[in-house]
Amino acid sequence: MGRDPNTLLRNFHQARWDEPIIFEMSTPGERGVIPPPLSKEIQKEIQDDGLDIPESLKRKCPPNLPEVGQMRVNRHYMRLSQEVLGNDVSIDIGQGTCTMKYSPKIQEHTANSHPKIVNVHPLQDVSTMQGILFIYHEVERYLKSISGMDHFTFQPGGGAHAVYANASIVRQYFRDKGEDRDEIITTIFSHPCDAGCPATAGYKVIDLMQDPELGYPTLEAFKAALSPKTAAIFFTNPEDTGIFNPRIKEYVDAAHSVGALAVYDQANVNGIMGITRAKEAGFDLIHYNLHKTFSSPHGGMGPGCGALGAADFLADYLPVPRVVFDGTSYSLDWHGEKSIGQVRSFFGNAAVVLRAYMWIRALGSDGIREAAMCAVLNNQYMIKEVEKIPGVTMYYAKGKRRIEQCRYSWEKLKEDTGLGTDEVLRRMVDYSLEHYWQSHHPHIVPEPFTLEPTESYSKEDIDEFVAVLRQISKECYETPEIVRTAPHNAPCHGIKNYYELDPEKVICTWRQYIKRKENK
Amino acid sequence: MRFKLGLIVNPIAGIGGSVGLKGSDSEAIQAQAIKLGAKKRANEKTKIALQQILSIKDAIQLYSAPGEMGADLASSMGFDLEVIGHICSTTSGQDTENIAQLLKAIPVDLILFTGGDGTARDVYNAIGDTIPVIGIPAGVKMHSGVYATSPHAAGDALVNFVLNGAPLREGEVMDLDEVEYRQGNLRVQLYGYMKIPYIRYYIQNPKASSHLNEHDLSGICFDIADKILKHADEDMYYIFGAGSTIKRITDHLGWNGTLLGVDVWHRGNAVVLDAKESDLLEISRNNRCKLIITVIGGQGHILGRGNQQLSAAVIRQIGLENLVVVAAASKIFSLPDQTLYVDSGDESLNEEIRGYMKVIVGWQETLVCRVM
Fold first, then answer.
1. A151 lies in the same domain as A247
2. What is the pLDDT of residues B140-178, one digit of tens each?
3. Rounded distance, CA B88 to CA B67, Å?
4. What is the helix (H) or strand (E) element at residue B308, kind and residue range?
5. Which structural domain range is residue B57 located in?
6. Chain A residues interacting with chain B (CB cutoff of 8 angstroms)
7. What is the number of other CB atoms lying within 10 angstroms of the CB of residue B35?
C-alpha cells in the first residue's frame, strides 16, 4: 500500500463533486437558524425609542442571500474543501516566496479557542487586557533582537500594507525636513509592492535591472539611479530569485550619502534570520511577514501581519497606537504628532502576533537560527536535484548559491517539446501536488517556477516533489499529450491561464454574474 | 468556416549566413553560397513549424506558394492545399511579393512565411499591415520584430491563434543594406510595420499581456506629455525619433508626426517632418533640443538602427543630457539579457553612452538598463 517506493509517485485522485454555486441551491423560506421571537421587554423598548437608524441607511429590500439549511450548507462547503489542496494535505514546496512552513496546530487552537484570547475585545479598558499587550510587547522585543531595529509596530495587515506604511513614513519624514524628493529606487526582482506601494504613495519609481552574472543590479547601475531626488530605496534581499546581494551595505551607504532613506523588504527573511540583521546593513525601515516566516498561516491572503521595524530617529512617525510599558503595566499610546496615523482598526491582527509569539517562544533564539539553516540546506539539496531534471535551467549567477528559494526556468523544455511552465503546473495536481508559484510580475525569467522547501520539509518530501517534476518532464518528452490535456485526476480541468483572461470576461461575484446575464 | 492560411517559404533564406556571407539578398551571393557548400535549410525549418499545426490541419484551408516555396513540403505532410500563382525556377524576392499579393487578394486570415529580413520586407511590400503574419525565423539578418522565437514556436503560435484568436500588435519590418554591410557599414532601415498576433511565448516575453503592454504605452504617453506640456518651455525644440511607440506619443499630443521618419516640433508646430541629418544638424546647432527615441527592433538598439539621421554629430549637438529614451517594459524584458545597444557610428560617442541609462517605461516609472 502507499505510494510506489521506487518512483515515489502516488496513485492519486481528487474528489469531484460537481457542486452548484450556493446561490443556485437557494430554496425560498429555507433557514439555517431560526432566531427566537423578541421578548416583550425588547419589543417595547424598540417601539418606545426606535432603533435610531436613519431612513437613508435602511434597506429597501432584503439582501440577496442564499436560503439554505445548516446541513446542506455544511455539506456544500465540506465538498468544496475536498476539491482543493493545501498546506495540510500536500507537499507545499511549490509556493516559492510564500515560505509555506508547518505552523504548529497548538498555535491555531490557542488563537481560535483559548477563552483568554477569543473573549478579549480591543475596546476593553487596557487594564483588563494586559495579557495580549504583554504578548505584543514581547514579540516586539524578540523582533528587535532578530533585526537590530529599535521599534516595531504590528498594525499593518500584510506585507504590502507594511511597505505602504513605510512609504508613508518616508513621505512624512521628508515633508517635515522640507526636502522635495519624489523618486524611489527598487530592483526588478524585489517584490512588486516595493515599486507599487511607493507609487501609490505618490513616488516616481526607478527600477534596476539585474546584472546577468551577479543576478542583482550592479552598484554602478544603482549609483546611476541615485540623485538628490531619491527619497528612499526599497529593496528585497535575498531577491525573488533566491540570490542574495552580499554587498548590500554599500548600496545602503550610497543611498544615505545622497540623503535618502533605506527600506528593507524582509518578507522573505526565512533563510537569514538569526544570521544577518537589517541594522548592521544600515537599514532605516524594514518589515517582516509574521504570516510566513513567523509561522502564522497565510489564511488565503489574510489575516496577516506586516511587522514594521524602524530605527530610533523614525520612531515618532510610526503608526498609533503603540504598545508601551512603564515598568509595571502596559498601555496604548495614541500620541504622536508626527505619526502617519492609524493604518488599521484597533491594533492590528492580534491572533497573528500571538502565533508568532508562540512560535518564537517554542524555538528560542538558537532554534530560529537553526530553522534558517535548515531552510537553506533544504534548498541547496533541492537545487542539486531539480537541476538534473531534463528541461530545467537556472538563470543568472551561474555556480553561485541561492539562499532559501530558487527561481528555475522550463525554457529548454518549452523549446524542446512546446510544453512549458503552464502545462507542467497543470499536471502537478495529478500527482497530488498543488500548483507551484511561477513568478512575480514581470516574468523576466522565461517559463518560470519558484520553489522554496523551507525548514519544515523532510528529505523524503523533497524527493517526492522532485520525483513528480522529473516524471512530468519525462512525459513532456515522451508522452506530451498526457501533459497537454492535464489535469486528469483533479476536480477542475482545462483552467485558463490567468494572464490570458480578458478582465471583461472574468466574473467574481454572483451579483456580477446575474447582471451580465441580464445584459446579454 | 475553415481558417485561411497563406504559406510562403523563401527556400534560400539564410543560405548566406552559414558560410559567413552576411545575408542572401542577391543571386550572385546565393550562387556563391551554394558553391561554398551552403545548404538550403528554410524548408527544414518550415517543416518543424508545420508539424505543430498538423493536429489542427482539418481546421485549416492552406493556400501555398508553389514548389519549393511551400507546396512541395506542405502536400508531402498531408495538408489540404491550394497552390497559388507561379514562381521562377530560381526563386527571388519578386516571387515572394507576387505570391503575397495573391494571398492578399483572396484574402487569407494570416500569412505564415519563412525567411529573414529580406523576406519580411518582400511580404510587407505586398500586404503592408492589412493581413497578420507570423514569421518562421530562417534568415541571416533578423532585425525585424515579426518572427516567432523559433520555428517550433511559430507553429505553436499559429495553432493558438487559430483556436483562440489573439489581439494584434505591430512588429517592425527592418532590413539592412547588404552591399553596404559587406563593406563594413551597418545601415538598417525601418521600412514599416506588419501586424502580428500577440501570443505568449511567440513574442518571447510570455507574461506581458496585451493589457499590460497597452497600459505601459499609454503611461509613457501621459508621462512625456506631462513633461512637455507642464513645463511649456517655449524655446525647446522636440525631436521625435522613428517608430510606433514614438508615434503613439505624438498622436497623444495631437501632433501629426510621421511613423518612420524623425520629426522636429517647436511650440506645438511641425518644423520639419521626416528630417534629414542636415536638417537636424542645423536645428540643433543653435537651439536647445530634447530628443525622444525608442528601442527599435528585436535586438535592442536605441541608435544606429532605423534612425541613421540621428548621426553622432547630431547627438553631440543635442547633448546626451537631452536624450530621452522610452519603451514599453515588455519590449525591454523580451530583449536578450535585457540589454540595449548603441551604434551611433562614432565609437567615442558610443563609449559615452554605454553603461547605464534610464528608460521611461510607464507613467512616472523608469527602468535603469545596461547599454552596450
1. yes
2. 777 788 888 778 888 988 998 898 788 888 888 888 776
3. 10
4. none
5. 3-197
6. 188, 195, 199, 203-212, 217, 220-221, 224-225, 414-415, 418, 420, 439, 441-444, 446-447, 497, 499-500, 503
7. 9
Q: How large is the ipTM? A: 0.86
CA-CA distance, B360 to A440, in Å (whole number)?
A: 21
pLDDT tens-place string over residues A305-364: 999 999 999 999 999 999 999 999 999 999 889 999 999 999 899 999 999 999 999 999
Same domain, B53 and B142: yes
Question: Is B201 close to A414, i.e. CB distance below 8 A?
Answer: yes
Q: How far apart are CA A497 and CA A501, in angstroms?
A: 7
Residues B336, B227 share a domain = yes
Domain count within chain A: 3
DSSP string, A362-374: HHHHHHHHHHHHH
- Are residues A339 and A452 both part of a single domain? no
Same domain, B190 and B42: yes
Closest CA to A96 of A390, A352, A434, A413: A434
C-alpha A201/C-alpha A507 separation (Å) is 30
Residue B183, Cβ neighbours under 10 Å: how many? 8
Tell me the DSSP string of B324-349.
Answer: EEE--HHHHHTSGGGEEEE--S-HHH
Residue type at A149 in one-letter notation: M
Is B368 within 8 Å of A208 when comparing Cβ atoms? yes
CATH number at residue B214: 3.40.50
**Interface contact B208, partner A, CB < 8 A:** yes
For residues B372 and B370, give the distance between their C-alpha atoms in angstroms, rounded to a whole number.
7
| Residue type for position A73 | V
Task: Spell out which residues of chain B touch residue A442, defining contact as CB-CB under 8 Å.
Answer: 205, 207-208, 329-330, 333
